[in-house]
Write a structure and sequence with these properties.
single chain; 3 helices; 5 strands
Length: 166
């Protein structure tokens, strides 16, 4: 086959997840498959892994470069939070949440005797950096120093809800 085809990021993700599923199945079947069939399965898995090796390396390099970039932005802005949405290439690109005016952060904080709090912060601008600024402000206001990893946003009309992790 000499098509010169390339995979989209979504196709790569599906292929990688399928390979993980095949590896899991292979481990489950090790004790019941005849040795020749198990060798054939192992060889096929190894061939797929070799074919994807360069893609894995590029993905790792991209992850590292974006991690350094997010860290640099956080330092420049004085943020306490960590950006963990690795699909964002530039903080100066527009985010997809059209019409958003407010960010909501719901969390449980220890400094308020483990009570649930809801922080509301205006979003001033349409760039990823503007969302990060609002998210960082909400995290600081909450007093939660554990859930500082910004993992996503869920939009409902003019409001985005911040999703964090630790």
């Amino acid at each position: 086959m000499t098509t010169g085809a390339t995979l989209t990021p979504d196709e790569f993700k599906k292929l990688n997840n399928a390979l993980c599923g095949i590896r899991y199945t292979q481990r489950q079947l090790q004790s019941v498959l005849n040795p020749e069939l198990l060798k054939s399965l192992n060889d096929s898995i190894e061939s797929i892994e070799q074919a994807l090796a360069n893609s894995y390396q590029r993905e790792s390099q991209l992850f590292d470069a974006r991690s350094r970039y997010y860290h640099q932005v956080a330092e420049q802005e004085g943020f306490d939070s960590n950006w963990s949405i690795y699909t964002v290439g530039s903080m100066f690109e527009n985010h997809p949440y059209e019409g958003v005016k407010e960010l909501v952060y719901k969390t449980v904080t220890s400094h308020l005797n483990w009570t649930e709090v809801e922080i509301r912060v205006p979003v001033e601008g349409c760039r990823w950096l503007d969302l990060w600024r609002a998210a960082d402000a909400a995290i600081r206001q909450s007093g939660d120093r554990h859930h500082i990893f910004i993992e996503g946003f869920q939009q409902d009309l003019e409001i985005v809800t911040l999703v964090t992790g630790s």
